[in-house]
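Key idea: predict the complex, not the pieces.
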Amino acid sequence: MPPKKEPIWIAREFSRCSGCRNCEIACSLFHENRIWPDASRVTVFMLVPGLEFPHLCTQCEDYPCVKACPFDALSVSRQTGAVLVNNEKCTACGKCIDACPGRIPHMHPKEKHVVICDLCNGDPQCVKVCQEGSWNVLRVVDRGHNPFKLYARKPDEITRDLAAKIYGETGEEYL
Amino acid sequence: MILGYAGKFLEVDLSSEAIKETKFSDEILKNYAGGRGLAAKILWDRLGDRWETVDPLEKENLLLLLTGPLTGFFPGGRLCVSGKSPQSNGVVGSTVAGEFGVELRCAGYDGIIVSGEAKKPVYLFIKDSDVELRDAGHVWGKDGKETVTALTRECRELLRTRYPRFGEWKEPAMVYVGPAGECKVRTAVVASKWSHAAGYGGYGAVMGSKKLKAVVAKGTGPLPEVADMKKLKRLIKSVCKEIYGNELWRRWGTGGGGYQVGADSSSEPVRNWQDEWHDEKSFGVDKFENRVWIKQYWGDFGCPTTCLKLAVVKGGKFKGAITDNPDYEMQAYLGPNLGVFTPEENVFLASLIDDLGLCGIQTGNVMGFAAELFQKGILTKSDLEGLELKWGDVEAFATLAERIAYREGIGDLLAEGTYRAALKLGKKKSIDLLPYAVQAKGISIGAHGIRSGKDYPEIISYACSVQCGDHTSTTGLPLDRGEPMEIFHDSGVYCNFNSFGIAKNGVFDFYKAVTGLKLTRKEWCFSKGLRILQLQRALLLLGGPDLKWVPKVHDDNPPRFYEPLPNGPYKGKTADRAAVEAYKKRYYKAVGWDKNGIPTAKMLSKLGLKDVDKSMQKLR
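Result:
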């Protein structure tokens, strides 16, 4: 029997992100067998050049998206802790997006359902490529008691924070 | 339809505001691929019969924004910008890094052909098949960073309002011009992000002359379907693996060059190429890394190298200056070439050049030219409206860059680029100023000299290139290691830096996996690529309307390259005129040009370019 998988978390260090988007490529190749950035479950936002970061599900302790789904289309994987989308049940109503403090889920660009990171069944492809290239923005760690929800922020908020860190007082004017 | 292409191109006529879709036959795509090759074909077909009379800065010129079949697939996405060049009066395939090419292909288009001229400033907004021209009055006159900020905000808001249910919209990609492009400065760029630029060719001036401030694209589809996805995935992996082992490019990008190319290979422009050697350790890459690089790895779509580094000056006089790296070319041309040897000053100038929408190479060259004339007393303080253009005075050079971008005072003359400025000023002063103009056929030479013999360009690399001074399109023999390979990179439209170190035929393996078509290096370099080279050569020689090139005179190095190096380990070395002539002769023969440098009837007919032959007859 294969060893029992423990729930994991993708730890993220935004300010190291190179903006290469190899995570988006890996994700869309894995899930769609195409290079398809807008169908990727991870999105590299670069609202301001230099302030790139990957935006992906953080698996909040209380899973507000799962709770908000009126159609029972979202569930939590007991194995990995990931939010799983049942594409048949999903009606693309967008309630999960509104419930997410980071507005992280987004619609599949061609099909009528939402897409959310499923942690690739415990072996996240985005992390793999980020590690292979030694950018180390994304790392797999034990789920443990990490500040999950603090990382579920809207792209504009994260950008604002990174502007302060990277560009200092001049950062604000570029938002 | 050939796989690997979105299959459609956009035709935008700014004069009539008509937007339509167009296609090219499989035959054309097979022969010309995309980017630079396709640009040469489009320009020949549409403007070839009246090329000499087409003013690059008038509305009959075309602005081409083209991807290629490998864009987004071969690691390191780029876009190829082209048209009739206001620098060489020929065709340059000028590529720029960024996300734009990928967004465009995801929107369903392989490229955009822009014709005409808008009545008032506009920008083009593309969201998949929804394409519209929008008012750009509020961003006209804005610098690079202001433009990116304003249009990103505006277009994300549009997406949010029009498609509220998608979720959070990632920013669309954009190419744009700064004030220099608006003012039709011949050294203006088409820019992307804040600091990436398609510089060679001067297409910012073409875009500005059309009153097209920006093109913004958001594509939600996948990249085109490919012939062999399994193979493609394997190839991408193998390229990445190769690159991950290359510490030099990954860690320092080309940023090690600012010191090394001067100190070791003696081929860096120093004070307008009066020297090519320096040993200023203040300009070492460790200084850049430790003082100004706040991101060690910064890159664009799919790039495993991420050779760019985000540079920010955090304090002092130049606080707030931001740019990428600067990479070697910007280091050299906005550093030693102007007598500047500290990272902060170099970042400041590069940041300003970005903001103004100028090309750091062409503008750094023309500013060095002006500074040498000041040094020699040919240009006086009063000619320069009070500026004292002393080597190393970054603030003086900053003021000059602004005057060039806005065509103010002496800037109006220098905005014509080094060659034209030398002619005009020389006439005014009744002195031959060409000995100080380090350029080839209207395009200033990249920051890699030939005199020491220790850098990659050879003694005819610039003299015989169809893109002239362009250091990314140098030529030489054997031909399958010369310019045709550069043509392939620019026609497949990807970053050639990621092709270093991969198997000799690696890029053609990519081409096969993507398109399903077998293509050998030999077939490309001696047939398809060579055909593109002849088209570019023919259009370059037709030239006009303001300047024409005569190979006997202009297929040459700048006079400075025949002066001996004055200092350093290669002191006394220079390009040998007899050796240049002998190599040129061999090169002409290999590419099928007659003794006067004109493509022969035999070669043109072999390549199926009979109509080109007709137009070459008058030059023979």
